[in-house]
Amino acid sequence: MPSNGGRTKAPSRIETANGRSEARSCPQCASKRIGTTKAPYTFRYGAGREAAEITVAVDVRKCQACGLQFLDDAAEDVKHEAICRHLGVMTPREIRALRRSLRLSRQEFAKLTRLGEATLGRWERGALVQNAANDTLLFLLKFPDNLKRLAQRQRRARA
Ligand SMILES: [Zn+2]
Fold this sequence. Notes:
With 159 residues, this protein is of the alpha+beta class. 42% of the residues lie in helices and 20% in strands. The protein has 6 helices and 5 strands. The structure holds zinc ion (ZN). Zinc ion is lined by residues 26, 28-29, 31, 63, 65-66, 68. The site of zinc ion has 8 residues, from loops.
């Protein structure tokens, strides 16, 4: 079973495209000889009757020097995406793609939707899952008409 081996020292990290980081050296011995294999990983999500077991394929890192196996943020991203799919809401990747397709900065998007900019950032980084109502708002913004209506409404409110 992959684990972080009770890490005592933060591994050195490389930034990924979406601003998360991945381990580049072993958290146990600091060796930079890290191999990667895909392996199924099952985790529980939710509680009580809502609880579900979700299985994803994650990149398991293995230190070639000391043999420690561990998961890093890349695995967290995969898990988060699976949770979004399980809940039927947009994934961080989809939210970023939506905002970029509208050619809006986070600040502009937040202003238009009246969402918090920090909250939007958390959704886009996969630090937080948007609730169903906010997910519905995001979904509707995929349609350019709706974006126009929102912008009109704001212009009117300012006039
Ligand atoms: Zn090691």
